[in-house]
Automatic annotation (TrEMBL), chains A, B:
InterPro entries: Homeodomain-like_sf, HTH_TetR. Keywords: DNA-binding, Transcription, Transcription regulation. This is TetR/AcrR family transcriptional regulator. Residues 12-72 form the HTH tetR-type domain. Gene3D superfamilies: Tetracycline Repressor, domain 2. The lineage of its organism: Bacteria, Bacillati, Actinomycetota, Actinomycetes, Micrococcales. Signal peptide: none annotated. It comes from Herbiconiux daphne. Residues 35-54 bind DNA. It holds the Pfam family TetR_N.
Length: 194, 194
DNA sequence: CCCTAATCTGACCGATCGGTCAGCGCCTGC
DNA sequence: GCAGGCGCTGACCGATCGGTCAGATTAGGG
């Protein structure tokens, strides 16, 4: 306890707080549509303070996405490790949906704004991961139909995760959403090897 | 020819040109991420000239979306007119996918940026239309699973329509995409009445 | 207690934002 | 050939953008 921590400059509370707020606002209003001032106001700090913790707006985005990126990379490794045998597909889908649920905000940013933010390294890396995960599900060269099914599953899931319209408030449990998502995604994915 | 046109102040060429360019840029880089200067540069006009044709940036967006809005409204009418008998579902899906294909840029803006742009009347109207189209497919109160399937189908389709990654360039024909989309959307939609 | 370093802030920077306005050239109808 | 309007533009506006910097404030270990 009293000994120095292994890595002294660990992310502190303020840092994590800012990353969470930024992630929410980037997902809801878009990266371009969210200013550092708005983030600072929402967090109760000054804009200068935000820029003290993060070198730039882009760095704030990248560090906010980092945890999701890390887990996405691990998931990709586990996918390529186990060969894509048919009966393991269901387990993969379940893990993948859980990954989306855990990092729903990051997923929404990467998928919905990935096109716009293509020049940001973290975004580019994430898109590369996703591409390779998709490829691992496909035998040989993907057909148009396969790529469209995968795209619909991915983008559709990412959208649903954040859509949460004000009307018909989010009374429904996460479990219910999880179950429905696993159902629809696996239905879309299983059509890929055909 | 020499007689005055029925409605003198019809949309002229420049107007239509600007609307198309704006629609493309809004879809690709986001509404907040696209400046009037960028639109003007892309069109080869000055920013002042853009604002001469359109009262404001918001008006440019609304007028760019107008054709899609109009057709979407007509589609909604045709949906509620014919009762949603099961065997007509396929025809509905086909029409709907064609609508998405025809107005792919507008669809992408409405679905992917609808949350952010909720205070813009045209966007709000479009989201209302889509909600009502969705409701017309559902019997009684929609379950979570039903709403998720519909959300995945809509957002997934909208994403695929604009995704068109630079890699593996858009060699594939529109017909191929259309066929795949009709297939996957109808598969998702037909699960709604269950 | 005091010195240092971490944290936080307001003032300020140049650039760009959406938008206004006066005026330019050009075409057209009289 | 002249008057008038339309299309278009540069200059300019206040506000805000992301980012810098010097200094105030705070916290903590010796």
């Amino acid at each position: 306890m009293s000994s120095i921590q292994p890595i002294p400059r660990i992310q502190n509370d303020v840092n994590a707080e800012l990353r969470l707020i930024a992630l929410q606002m980037f997902a809801e209003n878009g990266y371009a549509g969210t200013s550092l001032q708005q983030i600072a106001d929402a967090a109760g700090y000054s804009k200068s303070s935000v820029l003290y913790h993060f070198r730039s707006k882009e760095a704030l985005l990248e560090e906010s996405l980092a945890p999701a990126l890390s887990e996405l990379g691990e998931f990709l490794d586990s996918v390529v490790a186990r060969a894509s045998s048919d009966e393991l597909r269901a387990a993969f889908v379940e893990e993948f949906v859980d990954l989306l649920l855990e990092h729903r905000l990051a997923a929404h940013i990467i998928i919905n704004q990935g096109q716009t933010l293509a020049d940001i390294p973290a975004i580019d890396a994430a898109r590369g991961y996703i591409d390779r995960i998709g490829e691992s599900f496909m035998s040989e060269l993907p057909t148009t139909k396969q790529r469209i099914r995968l795209g619909v599953a991915l983008a559709g899931a990412a959208y649903v995760l954040v859509a949460a319209r004000p009307s018909t408030a989010e009374i429904e449990s996460v479990d219910e959403i999880r179950e429905a998502l696993i159902d629809v995604v696996s239905e879309l994915i299983t059509g890929l090897s055909a």
